[in-house]
Amino acid sequence: MSTVEKALRKYIYYPESDGKPMAETDFHINVIVDLKFALRNYYRKQKDVYVSGCIMMYYVEGDPTKSVSPDVFVVKGVAKEPRRTYKIWDEGHAPNVVIEISSRKTKSEDFKSKMELYAQLGVKEYYIFNPEYPKRSKAFRAYRLAADQYVEVLVMNGRVLSKELGLELVDTGETLRLYDPQRKQFLPTEAEEVEARQQAETAQRKTEKALRQEQKARLQEAEARKKAEAELARLREKLRKRK
């Protein structure tokens, strides 16, 4: 590549949107949002893990037509900072994990062109979940990269362990969740996190109120004891004078 070509490539525009909607239905959007929040929260203290989704990912430098937009993806070994687009040649890393939230319209693409592309890019784990629970096929499929192609991983009782994440992906029968086998609990969604925070704040307020009431009761008790002791002293003095 000539110096001129390299210089020109710097000015190539890579669009931040393909004009397509984020997802087909509210069910799809909710799954995407919950998974992204749970993963970002899980990796919040790790500076070299980037979690994103529904942004344009470009994989051929100089060709803005070569793009894909994974619903959810995780990349290890890159900075956590927000990005407008993800250019693989700049980052030096393809995603370690991609999760596609499939639908009737995207099923063919998810199982064919995207699967082939992710394998070529070196995405180590690929998961496909359909929240509409199709009757004729599995709602949740898991794949791991072997050489240059994907091998399907057996999903037992709706669960499969991600070696890349160290988490289990779980088809609950209603949605797709992430489970931490070390802590033995599901990663919280944003709604669950907010609810837990509110419950903690409510419990703290109740504790503080109880402590204030206890302190007030102790002060009242001390004041009553002080008055009783003063009254007893007065009576004793009165009795002494009579004698």
Overall body shape:
elongated
Task: Please state how the strands of the largest beta sheet are arranged side by side.
Answer: 1-4-6-7-8-9
- What is the CATH architecture descriptor of the largest domain? Alpha-Beta Complex
Question: How many strands appear in the DSSP assignment?
Answer: 13
Q: How many separate domains make up the residues?
A: 2
CATH superfamily of the largest domain: tt1808, chain A
Tell me about the biggest sheet?
A: 6 strands, mixed
Q: How far apart, in Å, are the first and last alpha carbons?
A: 119 Å
Q: Helical residue percent?
A: 25-40%
Radius of gyration: 30 Å
Strand content: 15-25%
Structural category = alpha+beta
Could you give the order of the helices and strands?
HHEEEEEHEHHEEEEEEEH
Q: Pick out the low-confidence regions.
A: none
* Mean pLDDT across all amino acids: 88
